[in-house]
Write a structure and sequence with these properties.
heterodimer; A: alpha+beta; Ubiquitin-like (UB roll); 5-stranded mixed β-sheet; 5 helices; 6 strands; 22% helix; B: alpha+beta; Aldehyde Oxidoreductase, domain 4; 3 domains; 7-stranded mixed β-sheet; 29 strands; 31% helix; 22% strand; globular; binds FE2/S2 (inorganic) cluster
């Protein structure tokens, strides 16, 4: 039977008539018009809906609204302070993490929760984030989290193994391939353009400009 | 170019016309970029392979040809408030084309990037084949017309300022969305837009050496919307009165409704309507929760689908039985035969297929959905509804990923049917389970390869590809058919195969064929299309050939790569990955290389397969040459995403068919790459050349797939033949 549920969402008090078992996700999306939390599976697997209940990570698709009575719900919409992005959001922008963006509200809420639990997460902690990203933004997600946590990330290409739990592997070493080979050549495989070679460019600017420390 | 009359082109788009600088792009001249390799075979002995169809004219050139006649219908506006507005007739699926196009416009106009507003265009049938997003062609096809259009606009703004100030245009400069005079006077583009409308003349695009925006790393223009939750996908739109709708679907693929008892469902809270549609029984309700509960309360007896007796083993047997035998004679040397099987793979985009439809009593309809082929979708929906195409508008919404899935209008058709039946707007969402069990998939393949070789060189390479029929019944298929029907035999699949498949190495006589079996299983092009399996299998064989010939696999590729750019990316990836270093037992490096879309990518991955059932790619390195880079960050992101796809499809993500049904139901059993499966070190190294931009969205998948398979093979001492390996 529908009954009244009172709780707060992003600091605003709300009151909704809903069946006690109605998942919070649909209360947010269909009754309150809060669409930042996304549906990706409805059964707690993809974590696109990830939000916070009293500051703790939840998957609203599997949390009945009745469990929220009197509690504080925070969705991605409630993370920024007005126009001021939360440091994690800012880090996401700076590292240009999102592709299609669909999973990112959930990824950000999961990262915020992780960093609250552990200010210096290890690679194993980051590996344990279950949020699915079908676009495959994982390396940038990892880099953004480390940047916020102030964990030095290896400048790409320096050949050091990643920080975190040992993987039982020797250091990579930066050795050249050890065999002779031509240098990269001009793109001479066409007749329609001038293949001016400006050389290799190390692309490693994932986290340029991330300044905010996680507070 | 004469000032065109914009009103005609904007018909039905609801744009308020004011006195803007508005004009259409000058018809560009067709350039067929012959960027294929036939370099001198200086390095080592290799038996040259003749160029394939793909090397002479590939998919990008076909799409460019098909788009060319309507390029002049694209519209750029400079508004009085200095907004540069462009409606992009393509779909943003996360690949970053909105940002890249904005960068090209900002560059050629000398406008601030923040002033540039790129929106996705509604379907515009007058664009014909110029509103298809596929085959990594968007930037290849639009780059030149868009920069010319912007250069023209800049020239006219400058001329308008020159007139106003009585100064020669040559003395004026442009910067930050304004024209500047030597004496310091400034007029913003907004101030000049009305006057510029009266100007004519064409501008010249800048030489690459003057670029300050194009080629730099720029964060997505929608990054802030993404991180604040403001980015809206179809289900987030607040369309007045649109009823959440889900569909009860049959237990097996393409099963149909027998009888329905909806008495209980109808009485459930929030339920508004229950509608039988060809694909199931739709429930429309006040909320998705109500709709799903009532769907579960429906009592439906289902009729079987067309493949209810078919399972994976039957499909494999069938593909094997019809596969053409390998025909290459065993030439003067030895030969290597290999047979590969690939499972079905669901696209599984994070945003499930969703559409909002409002079919009105007055015989008009509006549909909001992410569509890669909006014009075709508009036609298909109109036909379904029995309406004129012009009575249907398709508003293209951003997509939460696609990977090929949104070439089809399946969900738009369902939403339109339900809306028409109940006379109300609906928002129809396929659940994840719907998507897994009734979505489309990359077809299963059986592939046979025979390579003959002597001690030092490969003499022939034969590849027989047999697969479950790939469904091309969408706008891209139509474009291919109408463009290529005269030149290649077969249907759209064969055309696509011809314009996408080629062997990037000199390996003697190359003969590859595609054969398809129509099984009635819903399929669709998947990122990299044929190359995702065909080239991956070839990359595995390249490693095994190298071993047979006693060569290092990377060095072997570098010897026989046709293109200098290919050799260059291989050289670079060897250098940055530490190729050749010693690895402990169970760990290995693997290499893969792919060339398509007039681009090149080489990939080396490091794998930890000490537990062969739970391998992990721990590092991945990509070296790529895509010609002119537009957005460095966007490019890296695409190479990154496609690498994750290579990892998933080779190691763990596949779909099973059991008695006509898909076994998997969600991300719990369809094991796509997650953070814990992804490399902790990922690097992209770009070799910068100033070729016209090549395609980049799909490029890395075949290279990464090959690298992962080869690394796994080396680490475990096995010969992978069936993918995903842990299925
Ligand atoms: S929708 Fe909540 S976890 Fe997938
Ligand atoms: S950014 Fe598209 S699913 Fe993560």
């Amino acid at each position: 039977m529908p009954k009244k549920h009172r709780f707060s969402v992003n600091g605003d008090k709300v009151e909704v008539d809903a069946d006690a078992n109605m998942p919070l996700l649909w209360v947010l999306r269909d009754k309150l018009g809060i669409t930042g939390p996304k549906y990706g599976c409805g059964v707690g697997l993809c974590r696109a809906c990830t939000s916070h209940l009293n500051g703790n990570e939840i998957q609203p698709c599997v949390v009945p609204v009745s469990e929220c009575d009197g509690q504080e719900v925070t969705t991605i919409e409630g993370l920024a302070d007005g126009d001021e992005l939360h440091p994690v959001q800012q880090a996401w922008v700076d590292a240009d993490v999102g592709q299609c963006g669909f999973c990112q509200p959930g990824q950000i809420m999961a990262a915020v929760a992780l960093l609250q639990r552990k200010s210096k997460p290890t690679d194993a902690d980051i590996d344990a984030i279950e949020n699915m990203c079908r676009c495959g933004t994982y390396p940038r997600l990892r880099a953004a989290i480390k940047e916020i946590a102030g964990i030095p990330t290896d400048p790409p290409g320096n050949g050091e193994p990643p920080k975190g739990p040992p993987e039982g592997k020797p250091p990579n070493g930066k050795g050249p391939d050890g065999r002779p080979g031509k240098q990269p050549q001009q793109g001479g495989d066409s007749s329609s353009a001038e293949g001016e070679q400006s050389g290799d460019e190390k692309s490693g600017s994932l986290f340029d400009g991330i300044k905010s420390a996680f507070g | 170019m004469a000032e065109p009359e914009p009103a005609a082109q904007d018909k039905g788009r609801g744009l308020k016309r004011r006195k803007f600088l508005t004009f259409l792009v000058a018809a560009p001249t067709l350039t067929v970029a012959g960027r294929f390799g036939f370099d001198a075979l200086t390095e080592a002995s290799a038996v040259p392979s003749l160029p394939s169809v793909e090397e002479i004219a590939d998919l990008g050139e076909v799409i460019r040809l098909a788009s060319m006649p309507t390029m002049h219908l694209m519209v750029l506006e400079v508004t009085e408030d200095t907004t540069v507005r462009f409606e992009l007739p393509r779909l943003e699926v996360g690949q970053g084309i909105s940002t890249s196009i904005a960068m090209v416009l900002a560059e050629e106009l000398d406008a601030r990037l923040d002033d540039v507003d790129v929106e996705l265009s509604d379907s515009r049938p007058e664009l014909h084949f110029n509103q298809i997003t596929a085959g990594s062609t968007t930037m290849r096809v639009l780059w030149d017309p868009v920069r010319r259009m912007a250069a023209d606009a800049r020239a006219r703004l400058v001329n308008a300022a020159a007139n106003q100030w009585g100064l020669p245009a040559e003395q004026l400069t442009t910067k930050d969305s304004a024209v500047h005079a030597p004496d310091g006077r400034t007029l913003s583009y907004g101030e000049l837009s009305a006057a510029a409308r009266e100007e004519s003349g064409n501008g010249e695009p800048k030489p690459a050496s003057e670029y300050t925006v194009v080629g730099t790393p720029v964060a997505r223009t929608d990054a802030r919307d993404i991180v604040t939750g403001k980015a809206q996908y179809a289900m987030d739109l607040q369309i007045e009165g649109a009823l959440p709708t889900v569909v009860a679907r049959p237990p097996t693929i393409k099963g149909t409704v027998g009888s329905v008892n909806d008495a209980r469902a109808r009485s459930m809270p929030g339920v508004v309507a229950i509608t039988e549609i060809p694909t199931g029984v739709a429930v429309s309700a006040e909320t998705f929760y109500d709709a799903m509960r009532a769907r579960d309360a429906l009592e439906i007896s289902w009729k079987p689908g067309p493949i209810d007796t078919v399972s994976d083993s039957d499909i494999r047997k069938k593909l094997k039985n019809v596969a053409h035998p390998l025909a290459a004679p065993k030439l003067r040397g030895r030969h290597l035969d290999a047979t590969f099987d690939f499972a079905f793979v669901n696209h599984a985009p994070m945003e499930v297929e969703s559409a909002v439809a409002d079919v009105r009593h007055d015989g008009t309809a509006e549909v909001w959905m992410p569509s890669q082929t909006a014009i075709w979708a508009q036609g298909a929906i109109a036909k379904e509804l029995g309406l004129n195409r012009d009575a249907v508008s398709v508003h293209v919404t951003r997509a939460g990923g696609s990977f090929g899935r949104r070439l089809f209008a399946d969900v738009g058709l369902e939403a339109a049917r339900v809306s028409q039946a109940i006379g109300r707007p609906v928002k129809l969402m396929r659940t994840r389970q719907d998507d897994m069990k009734h979505g489309r998939m990359r077809p299963a393949y059986h592939q046979k390869i025979r390579a003959s070789y002597t001690k030092g060189e490969v003499l022939s390479f034969e590849h027989r590809v047999t697969g479950v029929g790939l469904d091309f019944d969408h706008g891209l298929g139509e474009a291919l058919t109408s463009t290529l029907a005269q030149t290649v035999e077969g249907g759209a699949s064969q055309y696509y195969f011809a314009v996408s498949q080629s062997m990037p190495y000199h390996v003697g006589v190359v003969n590859h064929t595609l054969q398809e079996v129509q099984l009635g299983i819903p399929t669709g092009s998947f990122r990299s299309v044929f190359s995702g399996t065909v080239r991956a299998a070839e990359e595995v064989v390249m490693d095994e050939l190298a071993e047979q010939m006693g060569k290092d696999p990377l060095e072997f590729r570098r010897e026989v790569a046709k293109a200098d750019s290919g050799k260059a990316v291989l050289t670079k990836v060897a250098e940055v990955s530490g190729w050749g270093k010693d690895m402990p037992a169970g760990h290995a490096l693997g290499v893969g290389y792919h060339s398509e879309y007039r681009s090149h990518a080489a990939c080396v991955v490091e794998i930890n397969a000490t537990d062969p059932a739970n391998p992990r790619v721990t590092k991945a390195f990509i070296a790529a040459d895509v010609g002119q880079v537009i957005n460095q960050k966007g490019l890296e992101a695409q190479l990154m995403g496609a690498t994750m796809d290579g990892i998933a499809t080779v190691l763990q993500a596949g779909v099973h068919i059991d008695n006509g049904a898909v076994r998997e139901s969600s991300y719990g059993d369809f094991l796509w790459t997650k953070q814990g499966d992804s490399p902790t070190q990922f690097e992209v190294h770009l070799i910068r050349t100033d070729w016209a931009p090549g395609g980049a969205g799909e490029l890395a998948l075949p290279a990464a797939a090959g690298a992962v398979a080869n690394a796994y093979a080396k680490a475990t001492g096995t010969k992978p033949r069936s993918f995903p390996i842990n299925h």
